């Protein structure tokens, strides 16, 4: 059997992010053993709208909690709305109490 490609591996991790929690592009890359590939994780998130089952891409932010991928959602406010619907607070495109809602995939994933 063929191993899943990088994007599919990213999607496997992102599907495991609990509701109301977020992680970063870099944390996903490190969990996959590709620590220098956070930009590639971002590319995967940008392409996630075509994946099935759906990917909760709104739960992936940059390393300091900024909604850096918000323009990929077709609306500049949709990513924030989705996170707020899960109970997170966003101020100036940044997650409040980021450390408290951060999910570490390296310790919590099931591949």
UniProtKB/TrEMBL annotation:
Gene3D superfamilies: Winged helix-like DNA-binding domain superfamily/Winged helix DNA-binding domain (1.10.10.10). Coiled coil: none annotated. Keywords: DNA damage, Methyltransferase, Transferase. GO terms for molecular function: methyltransferase activity. Signal peptide: none annotated. GO terms for biological process: DNA repair; methylation. It comes from the Bacteria. Residues 5-87 form the Methylated-DNA-[protein]-cysteine S-methyltransferase DNA binding domain. This is Methylated-DNA-protein-cysteine methyltransferase related protein. The lineage of its organism: Bacteria, Pseudomonadati, Bacteroidota, Sphingobacteriia, Sphingobacteriales.
